[in-house]
Design goal:
CATH topology of the domain at 1-184 and 521-538: Serine Threonine Protein Phosphatase 5, Tetratricopeptide repeat
Number of helices: 23
Number of strands: 6
Shape: globular
Strand order of the largest sheet: 1-3
CATH class of the domain at 1-184 and 521-538: Mainly Alpha
Distance between the termini: 43 Å
CATH architecture of the domain at 1-184 and 521-538: Alpha Horseshoe
Order of helices and strands: HHHHHEHHHHHHHHEHEHHEEEHHHHHHH
Strand content: under 5%
Amino acid sequence: MKKYIIGLTLMSALSMGLTSCSDFLDEPIRGQQDMTNYFTTEEECAKQITGCYNFLDGRDWWQIYKFYNLCNITTDDCWMGNTTQDPGEYRVACMFTGNTIDLGNACQNFWQYRYKGITQCNIAIEKIPQIKFNDEKVQKRLVAEAKFLRGFYYLDLVKNFGGVPIMLSLKMPSEVQGVERASKEDTYAQIVKDFKEAAVDLPSRSEQDPKDVGHATRGAALGFLAKAYLYSGNYEEAEKVLQELCCRGSFAGQTPEYKLMDDFSKVWNIDYNNNDESLFEIQTLDDTQYGLGERYSVVVGSRDDSGWAWGQPTSDLENAFKAQGDEIRLKYTILHDGQTDVPGDPTWNEDNPYVVSASKHKSGRCNMKLFIPVGKRPSPYDAAHNPLNIRLLRYAEVLLMYAEVENQLGHDSEAQWALNEVRGRVHLSAVTTTGKELRDAIRAERRLELALEGTRLDDLRRWKMDDGKTMMEHVFGPNGSFVKYNMETSTDPYETTNQIENSNEGINFQAPRDLLFAIPNSEITMSNGSIKQNPGYN
């Protein structure tokens, strides 16, 4: 598979184009001319779109997954976990120190790789329409895929950093000096535009050619469009989109393109990539020649099982499952030290229990959703070779977004329907409450259903409590529920004993500073100071 490399920072990414060799980096102007000549065939256009997809994960753990894991660690669902190594920027993030220098590479790499992806998409959107295609529908689909991915990359940025520079075309270096951040509202407006335009020309899941499985569909574009509307507080527009996906309202009587898997155990099972519930996934391959798999499973795995143990589930999260009597999702979300019955893996038994040793880990727990049975691991395992697709949007989340939107609009019976669809799969009783009690039930359900999938930080930041403060302000800080639980209430034998990772995580939280991450200092410097830092960071 041919890969394309573009610039290293926002400034260079916005001014550099497609390359197939390292020589391009030394001669950017000639490289831009080569890029112009490159787009002469349909095959070359399709390869460019492949390059756009490559930046979903950067093809290893440190470009994107390290940041995704950092987002989990910066919540009440995860500890850093590994107590045998220096956690670096993980500590800075979860301790909320406000230090932009030490926050380091996780944010910087994420920012840069998201803009690299955006630049690839901009090239495709500009160049592909200039080529004569045998089938105009194929041409429109490729452009739509690029718009979908650009919208996704900008959504990833805005929810973590606030408004960001919006670039929609390739620029010369002189044109990007002095670039400024757009407002959050304008950034969301561009995201909405990209997803709406993409949805027009993308095929539905049922119409998609089997060879294109894994590429964006209309359903994926609508799903992320709904998320953009929800995150920006536009509930009326979100409702319209979600009703189409759920076949409710004016779409009642139609058959949804997606459905819940009949068994929660299959949702993240390695044998069920691109399953009936999945709207969009990062695609992986079991290969040892190219880095086309994932290593996220290794990053979060037990150090006693060839893993690195970054991002361990908390007892606070486990207690949330137990409070609901949710044994099914708990079983397939959290893997325990001493467990003798590990789903899908006969390696572990009474004579050989699973190990998450207290001396190496803050918590005696690991992420079961990303666990790969020993017999299905490629060799070497500690590399980007694992064929477990990373689920980015599931129909269960679509239903929970619909429940949240309908509750916000005062349509509680419809909200109950969507919520109970999700609860019913794991045999939990139907919720019949209304108003704020229903709101709280929906929020609790999102935490359990989507645990460790990267949505918790989004939710903590955006959900407002009755006093007008965010839920994150209630969870963290000196009087935060998570901090007080760990400092005063918890009797967990692992978390209370291993204090190499201090149990007071989150005590330094400050709002509004810690409701967003810091803009990487390197980007501010490269912009000659025109990109401004988020408030409160030093």
